[in-house]
Design goal:
The protein has 7 helices and 7 strands, in the order H-H-E-E-H-E-H-E-H-E-H-E-E-H. It is of the alpha/beta class. It has a single domain, classed as Glycerol-3-phosphate (1)-acyltransferase (3-Layer(aba) Sandwich), CATH 3.40.1130. A 7-stranded mixed beta sheet has the order 1-7-6-2-5-3-4, with helices on both faces. Helix 4 links the parallel strand 3 and strand 4. Helix 2 packs across helix 3, helix 5 crosses helix 6 and helix 6 crosses helix 7. The longest helix has 32 residues. It starts with a helix and ends in a 6-residue tail after the last helix.
Length: 250
């Protein structure tokens, strides 16, 4: 019965996402066509992401989200930040814009732009899409556009492991996020998320439960080496993951 209910809930949630993404995406496309600014288009997108993660996640999937450390986030309208987030599923990618006080600029692979409706919509937002096969050129683009977004008051968000990592495992932490932070002088904010317990990586079935989101204190980047800084970020995130989800690391 547990599998049956998980399948039913997961199917309903997937249907809900499919039905709701179309009007929200069309609204963003329409707003772009008539000259509505990127800030308003972002608010439309974050509203849908919150609907999918926080609200439908709770009502349909039975997932409760508990967030700690919001007081650690940098204060100020133009204060920069680079968010480096543990990546276990798509849940945190949907969730972050709904809970952050600043607009977020995601760094993502350009292939997502071709996803119907969803990709078309994010292509009209102030995000940073890159070609991963062109590593040097991709990073130069991240730095150039990252500086622009930070100056506009947006925060850069990256998943240092690069891809979704199964619960209880650790991926390879790439230093592109800390390299960007060092070059821009923005502090790094490490974030641990235990989404894999309820929303497993690359899996259709989702399960009720609690997802913990723990936001660490900003780590200054000025005068730091990007590899040393990433080692500090990795150590904090992984230690926090062990504390929040000890059963996964038993």
């Amino acid at each position: 019965m547990t599998i049956f209910w998980s399948f039913l809930r997961s199917s309903l949630h997937m249907l809900w996402m499919g039905v709701t993404v179309v009007p929200y995406a069309l609204l963003i496309i329409l707003c772009a066509a008539v000259g509505v600014g990127s800030a308003k288009r972002y608010r439309i997108a974050s509203a849908w992401l919150g609907l999918v993660s926080l609200h439908a996640g709770r009502v349909i999937l039975g997932i409760e989200t508990r967030i700690t450390g919001l007081e650690n986030l940098p204060q100020g309208e133009k204060t920069p930040a680079v968010l480096l987030v543990k990546h276990q599923s798509a849940f945190e990618a949907f969730l972050m814009p709904a809970i952050m006080p600043h607009p977020l600029a995601y760094v993502f692979k350009k292939e997502l732009l071709y996803v119907p409706f969803f990709g078309w919509a994010i292509g009209l937002l102030d995000m940073i899409h890159i070609d991963r096969s062109l590593r040097t050129q991709a990073f130069k683009k991240v730095v150039a556009q990252g500086k622009e977004r930070l100056e506009q008051g947006s925060w850069i968000i990256m998943f240092p492991e690069g891809t979704r990592v199964p619960r209880g495992q650790k991926g390879v932490y790439e230093s592109s996020g800390t390299r960007l932070a060092v070059q821009t002088g923005a502090p790094v904010v490490p974030i641990a998320v235990t989404s894999g317990a309820c929303w497993p990586a690359k899996a259709f079935l989702k399960y009720p439960g609690v997802v913990h989101v723990s936001i660490g204190k900003p780590i200054p980047s000025e005068g730091r080496h990007h590899r040393e800084l990433m080692q500090e970020v990795e150590a904090w995130i992984e230690a926090e993951m062990h504390r929040l989800d000890p059963d996964a690391y038993a």
